[in-house]
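We close this part of the discussion by returning to an individual protein. The sequence in question and its structure tokens are set out directly beneath this paragraph:
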Amino acid sequence: MSRNARAPGPGRWAPGLAWLLWTLTLSGLAAVFWFDHLLRQAGSSEVDRLNADAYPVVLAAVSAATVGAVVASRRHRHPVGWLLLATGLTMVADLGVNAYVRYGVVVRPGSLPGARYLAGVSFGIFLVWISLAGFVLLLTPTGSLPSARWRWWARVAAAGPVLELLSAAIDPQPLYPEHPEVGNPLAVSTLRPVQVAAGIAGGAIILVSLVVAAISLVLRYRRAHGTERLQLRWLAFAAGLAAGLLVVAVVAGLVVGNDAVVSACLGAMVALVPLATGAAILRYRLYDLDRIISRTVAYGLLSVLLAGGYAAVVLGLSRLFPQDSSLVVAAATLAVAAAFQPARRRIQRLVDRRFNRRRYDAVQTIAAYSARLRDQVDLGTLTGELLTVVDQTMQPTQASLWLRPQAAATATDGTAAHNEGVRDAREGYDSDGTRP
């Protein structure tokens, strides 16, 4: 073997393995839809099939597997990428094994090999991927526990899904109460009390681990500094959006009764956490998070205000004009269009004061300097103020101002040079005042 030849390390095969697991997840998802097609052809109303309640899980599985593949292929030593891949794969396995068992045990008994042996396991997989999601939160964003004192809890949390799977595997009536006649060939009747106790303990540990993982993120944020704190803000942002979507789903389900909106909100809610986790770990546009938050909040408030204004105009004018008059809709549309830009600017300024203070301060500093520039003619004063403005808004490591030799001859040329310097400084910002 030549001296330059090296054995392939984990960094070389990790991307291939990550995308192989991602392909396996999507292939399993295709199998899930195929079994669902077979169940629908059978026409048995007693068998669970894919419906609106399962679509959020499907979306979350695709999101977790995709983000996990990207993270694992780029940072193969980070465990969260592999945990996300395992979460997506386990979600698909949960749906697939359940459909496999329902078809092979209930609809067509004996048609699928091993279906009766998997009947108990089909209920235990659900809590396994929930436990994996808890570990994702516990290890984000650094890939390690918050401190060494958390090791004992990590071991307890890892024991939860093991107890749950063992309990489900030997459950004597895995499909009870829907199908009490279905038995489990792996069941041991003498271990029934132990099986029940293990199932209760495993489920309790998994549910508690989710709460503990959320608490660990709060503790991390309080102790974190610099980049890690900014990474955790991605998760906080996703949690805030998820809470808003949950409110919309509850309102749509209880008040409006729109199941499609409920399913869409729940699907987006459960898919947000993997996306935010991947963005935090890969530090994708990390320092633009304030801008993203401000834009999201501003346009959300703007949409609510304009929708309320549109409804108020329509209701008000409908009392004056016939109900089917096109003038009502035209007037409401014109009113909303006229109010859009002024309302957007006002809301954006209010939101930037809270969520994007750096941009707000930079815009105010440049505006104040521009106002002073119209009245100030002293070259030395303008030079000092220009460098101060550049330092406060762009925060460079160092700043210097070069003037043409002939600029010192007359105040007019000097002022023109400084105006050119101000223009160059402004060109370092986008139209909304942030650095490109």
Summary: The radius of gyration is 30 Å. Confidence is low (pLDDT under 50) at residues 1-7, 407-415, 421-436. The first helix runs from residue 10 to 42.
